[in-house]
Amino acid sequence: MSESGSVASLPDLISDHLRLTRSITDKGFNQSSLHEVFRNQVDEILHSKEEIISLKAQLKMSQESIKLQEAEYAFQRKQYEDDIENLKKKEHDLIDTLTKFQNDVVQTHKYDVQVMLSQKEDEISKISNKYKKWKEKYHSLSSEFEKIKSTTDELQSTNKSLSEKLSNQTEEIEKLRQSSQISSSGIPEKHTADVDSSQIDSLSSQINSLKDRLTQSKTQSQNVIEDLNNQISKLTEENKVLKGQIESASAKIIKQQVRIGRLSDENKSISSSFAEYSNHIEQENQQLRAKAKQYRKQRTMCEDHLKQMQGIIQHVELERDAISDLLGIEADELNENWSKMTSKIEQLIHDASSINELRTQNDKLQKRLNVALEEARKPQSKTHIAGKDGYLATLQTNLKAARIELEQKNSILEKYKMRLAFNHAIELMNHNILHQINDLYHSLSSNSGVSMRPVILVVILAKRFFKVTKIEGQNDPTALQAFGEMSAVPLALKMETIRKSFTSLTQELMVLKQSFVECNETLQNAIEERDIAQLTLRSNSDEIKLTRKKMKYLKNRMQELQDELSSLVSPEMYNSVLSRLNLVEKHNTSLNDKIKELENELDQRTELEKKMNERVEQLQIKADQNSENAHQTRAQYAAKEEEIETLKSLLRDKTKEILSLERLVRRQEEKESTTSATFTCLTVENQELKKIHTNALNGSDISESTEDTDGMNDLKKAIKVEINPAFLGK
Questions:
Q1: What residue spans carry the Polar residues bias annotation (predicted)?
Q2: Which of 209, 213, 215, 217 is nearest to 151 (CA)?
Q3: CB count, 10 Å around CB of 451?
Q4: Tell me: the pLDDT tens digits for 485-495?
Q5: For residues 80 and 86, what is the distance between their CA atoms, to the nearest angstrom?
């Protein structure tokens, strides 16, 4: 009975073993990690392909936007060229108008000068007429002097005739005396003698009186002649002196008038040029003030950006140091590629992926172990149980080692999570830096172009939303940054525009400095011209004072001469000379009035010069202020250049990071190629498993011992297949 029971139990045992092997193979096939790995890798490949497609679309969009921007820049360049040509035309027109205005001003000045010259010629003609009148007076006086000479000659001739008569009468008297002496001897003739003697006495008395009169008349005539000669000589000398003084005074007056005309012209030109310079300087000051306001605004904006960038850079440095401390790596420099950190992060990512795979495999192994333990607990033969106990002991040791490794990997994963958080923070900081650079570019270039990229991405996401919700995955908080506005202008062009704007601003500063220096030079020239004009005016005023004193002296001398002439000259001549002198005095008064008017004009000009000096001082103060502002702007531009250099260094770092990302993409492609190779290996292994399965099904007629050994070998192979060395990357 026992033999029959044992014989009957053999096919049952064989069938049970076959069922167990089939169940193990089915469970191993269903619970193997190969399908999940395939699925995960296929999902990753699809995800990477979608990312590649999206990146290609972004590249196409960026290329199209770049083309559009190039077209816009070309259009703007044409507009700017047209504006430049229009401005050049306007400049030529302004130059033409200025030349016309200068010609008109010169013509007006010429006309004024001609009018002044005509007036001066009229005055000179009047003075020459007066000089001719004085000459005529001199000739009339000389003719009168000749008449007086003729009268003196006549008087001398009359004196001679009288002297001859006297001599004749004396002779007659002597003859009568002789006759009287002869006739004194006769008595009857006494009466006649007495009569003759009385007559003789009367005649002698008359003769004596006549002699006395003659002597007196001679002396008087001689005295008068001498006095007249002396007076005539004095008058001739004084006339010569007066002629010389009048000529010198007229020449001086002409010179002074010419100088006054020159000074008036110079003063007018100086006042007009100074007014033009003042207007030009005021316009330049207004432009400088406006530019200074713009520069101040830009400086405040740049200072704010600088502060933000400095804070961000400090934060980046702190985060870099913290991340390097967490990773156990020396901190890389900001100006260079973070090669150490990137390599460490890549290693950690690779370790994380391997740890995830180990976790999944460990879970599957635990499930299989639980199944094997449950089967081992069932009543079976002792030999089978002993073999399974040894196998379980090996599995437990392997599990303990795997758990220790898993704990280590979990600790490493926690660190990597922290580092990934730091990486997200760094990405946010990078985004903020790029945003600030864009703000600085827009503030400098005043180009606020709105891109349609976010709208297009929202439309694409709305279409793919239902597909995305079906896929299970982790949420990435930084993924929404892709919906931000993509810069239509690349960073290199932005930095070039910023650099060009700063260079243009520095060039404008140089031009302003040169104009400022030229204005200072013109101011110094105007001050020197003003000083020269003041000196000339002072010298002219001194000369005018001297001429006044001379005129007063001449007036006094003329009055003295008039008094002398009144005593010597006849009243008619005196009245005529007085009338002439009155005319001369009127002319002198008119000249004095003109001199006073000129003095008033000089006083007004001195007041204007004082005002101009005050204005020049104010302009100098403004120029000093402008120079201080220029120095401040220099310092600001130096700081801006330093900021630009720092930004350039940051851009270089970012370009290096982009290159490192491209390298990561290439490595991902290489990994995809390796995964495809693993897929081929896995397909080969699946085919081998299928062959083993078919062989197991075909070997059902073998003995119990061979079946037990085959079942154990199949279990070992199935368990070994679950951990593929090719899959683990060994």
A1: 153-170
A2: 217
A3: 14
A4: 556 667 777 77
A5: 10
Dig out the tokens for 270 from the structure.
Answer: 């100086």
Residue 4 has pLDDT above 50, yes or no: no
CB-based contact 302:440 (threshold 8 Å): yes
Only one residue has tokens 């269903």, namely 30
pLDDT for the residue 565 = 59
Cα–Cα distance measured from residue 332 to residue 324, given in angstroms and rounded to the nearest whole number: 8
- CB count in 10 Å sphere of residue 337: 16
How many residues are listed for the chain in this entry?
730
Nearest to 723 by CA among 40, 44, 28: 28
Please give the single-letter amino acid code of residue 5.
Answer: G
Residue that is written with structure tokens 């002097």 in the block: 145
DSSP 477: G
Distance from C-alpha of 571 to C-alpha of 576, rounded to nearest angstrom: 8
Question: Is-above-0.70 flag for pTM?
Answer: no
Dihedral of CA 664/667/671/673: which sign? Answer: positive
Distances (CA, A) of 409 to 358, 398, 404, 415, 422: 10, 16, 9, 10, 19
Q: How far apart are CA 349 and CA 355, in angstroms?
A: 10
For residues 727 and 682, the answer to whether their CB atoms sit within 8 Å is: yes
pLDDT tens-place string over residues 608-655: 777 777 877 777 777 677 777 767 777 777 777 787 788 778 778 877
Report pLDDT for 717.
Answer: 45
Q: Whole-angstrom distance between the N-terminal and C-terminal Cα of the chain?
A: 57
Residue 380 three-state SS: coil
How many other C-beta atoms lie within 10 A of the C-beta of residue 328? 8
CA-wise closest residue to 605 among 528, 521, 523, 536: 536
Question: Tokens 């007629």 appear where?
Answer: 701
Q: Which of the two residues, 352 and 546, has the higher pLDDT score? A: 546
Determine how many CB atoms are found less than 10 A away from the CB of residue 231. 17
Query: What tokens were used for 239?
Result: 């006339």
What's the pLDDT score for residue 703? 45
- Residue 308 and residue 707: Cα distance in Å, rounded? 77
Distance CA 611, CA 616 (A): 8
Q: How far apart are CA 100 and CA 653, in angstroms?
A: 60
Q: Which residues of 397-431 are buried (b: 16+ CB within 10 A; e: fewer)?
A: eebeebeeebeebeeebeebeebeebbebbeeebe
pLDDT of res. 229: 66
Q: Measured between alpha carbons, how far is 295 from 292 in angstroms, rounded to an integer?
A: 5
DSSP codes, 22-77: HHHHHHHHHH-HHHHHHHHHHHHHHHHHHHHHHHHHHHHHHHHHHHHHHHHHHHHH
Distance of CA 161 to the CA centre of its chain: 111
Please compute the mean of the pLDDT values over residues 428-440 and round it to a whole number. 74
Exposed, middle or buried by CB within 10 Å (0-12, 13-18, 19+), for 315?
A: middle
